[in-house]
Amino acid sequence: MTATIIFVLLFGLMLTGMPVSISLGLTVLTFLFAMTQVPIESVALKLFTGIERFEIMAIPFFILAGNFLTHGGVARRMINFATSIVGHWHGGLGLAGVMACALFAAVSGSSPATVVAIGSIILPAMVKAGFPKRFGAGIITTSGALGILIPPSIVMVMYSVATNTSVGTLFMAGVVPGLLLAFMLGALTWYRARKNKYPRMQLIAGRSGAQATIATIAGLSASLFFIAAPIGLAWWLMGRLAPEGTGILVVLVGIVWLLLARLLTRNAFVLRWVFTAAFLLTPPVIVYALLALFLPGMAEALLLAVFVIWLVAAIPLAKKGDLVSGMAIEARHESLIVWRTFWQSVWGLLLVIVVLGGIYSGVFTPTEAAAMSAVYAFVVAVFVYKDLKLKQLPKVLLDSANMSAMLLYIITNAVLFSYLLTSEQIPQQMADWMIGQGLGAIGFLLMVNLLLLLAGNVMEPSSIVLITAPILFPVAMKLGIDPVHFGILITVNMEVGMCHPPVGLNLYVASGITKMGITELTVAVWPWLLTMLVFLVMVTYVPGLSLWLPRLLGMMT
Asked: Is residue 330 scored above 50 in pLDDT?
């Protein structure tokens, strides 16, 4: 009876058009004053203590970092890098949009920010290139949702606040599902583009698509080599020279390496051999790293075989693909374009290493990583790329403060609502009832998906997570569902909810960019939305997708 009164009050207030945050607060106050003898002082105390958790501080810092990057030209450089890699395939600009969204998601933590940053640049380019507006709108609306799955993620921070789950473990758990969803969205984009004969970027005269792909792999291999090499070299030096030292040596060696590489490869002869060597060496090294993860005892034995097989195949490919055409560094060539766009976007891409590498290595906590990302994004946007002027800083700071205040107000009232539910033993009663009905883990997860998808029709993600997580979490724990897996499942549901009406935030953001109505945009989105639903089923019933990487890194058993 108590639960019925609480939820009737909540939904009654929401139906009047009142904001969710205020509805939550009024529900709690009305019930406490009318139905209990709880003193008002305890309510005020709970309002303040509810947001005292250190993890909550990560939210405004990630928002600030995302705003710096959105205004700082990082998105444009990431789009150029993505286009250089996949632009010559069918639907190349669309594939570049998916890839750019995945890259920007890894530095922003916000879906609407990803849609704005990538969509405002790639959508006009797609329309100008001859793509239907609906095709581009469907890609960006759904791919932008990667912003809350690929870490860092504001939604994951909120789930952590509501359930006391480790933020760092959640971030690592989101990596594999995020990359898998990006691949699935990209595969659908390529298929529809090829089926409908949509345009792709023009190949260099006299080159086949296969040759262009080989040259692209060479450029990407060289780029990966110059990111991975300083990290490996620095860790080796730390073990030899400063075993008790900090990560400062890693940073110094990395910076010196990148500057030296940039200086040396300005010479055409050196650049040609760098591309050839990277093309021949980088893939076997990646395979060896994977073998070391999955088959540690057999990695060294298999490496020689892998290396020989690759050389036999790669040397003819290198000659046929003409990895660097001629000796002119400025030549318009796929591998050189990848190389050049990589160097233009490298400072934004390094933010991923700063955040995730710092968390995993234990250099700083997720909240400290958020603060570091904000400082790093500020330096890159203002002093490195110089796209953000100092006179624009007050507006960026004010926008970030407004969004942070809105989310913190929702969190405060949601924590108060959670306190009311807990004090009335409602989650525990629901858990006992569901288990008493014989509802197993499979049925419960199905019910959770349906509930969250329905909630996505009337509420935005922050409110859904903060209201439903404290209720559903105890049931999941009693049924033996891993809390990290459950958090990724809720996050994916939030992704889907952001892409369908009537309150899908990505729809409204994309509508403003494309000047399309919500109904027309909903029709445009449905093929990718169906793909996301298939992905939701995979994440729900294959926990290994979420838990494999955290277990591999030793973050959970």
From this structure: no
